[in-house]
Amino acid sequence: QVQLVESGGGLVQAGGSLRLSCAASGRTFSSGGMGWFRQAPGKGREFVSDIKWSDGNTRYADSVKGRFTISRDNAKNTVYLQMNSLKPEDTAVYYCAAGTSYALYAYWGQGTQVTVCS
Predict the structure, then answer these.
(1) 103 pLDDT band (50/70/90 cuts)?
(2) Whole-angstrom Cα distance, residue 31 to residue 98?
(3) 60 and 48 in contact (C-beta within 8 Å)?
(4) What pLDDT, in 10s, does the model give residues 27-46?
(5) Is residue 95 within a helix (H) or strand (E), and if so which, with residue range?
């Protein structure tokens, strides 16, 4: 059984930081990737960032470039999202995703709420 469990969300002030974690169990994604998506109130789900597991290549949405950093721990089968300089518009439920092929995400976590107050 594949499970993705997010943690690290919370309530922060604008300009603050959070680090999200996503622990995968049941299998590894060494031939694929893991990433983060988010859904803000009244908005559709949008891509935030992802990482190719094998070589660590990363991608970011324009809205978070320079502020967010994605990384992974091979031994722990875990991906992280370091979020700095948070803005109110970053408020959303953040979802972890994983797939056996890069950018094809078949597995999803339950989400963790991030709320940024001005």
Answers:
(1) confident
(2) 11
(3) yes
(4) 888 889 999 999 998 999 99
(5) strand 92-99
